Amino acid sequence: EDGRYMITLTGLSRFRMTEEVEGFTPYRRVRVCWNSFDRDMGPTETDPGFDRDGFMNLLSRYF
To answer: To the nearest whole percent, how much of the chain has pLDDT over 90?
Structure first.
């Protein structure tokens, strides 16, 4: 181990990094813009013909 942390962030909305903020932190700090992803925070869209169980079964091969 080299003393670093691996941090994984998850969220509800995508964003674009617009600028990296200078500083003396052991992690990256950025300014972001959400403008291109307004629909991410809207109502959930569903497809009645989507076979979720089949899709999850297929994905399980890779995880």
So the answer is: 48
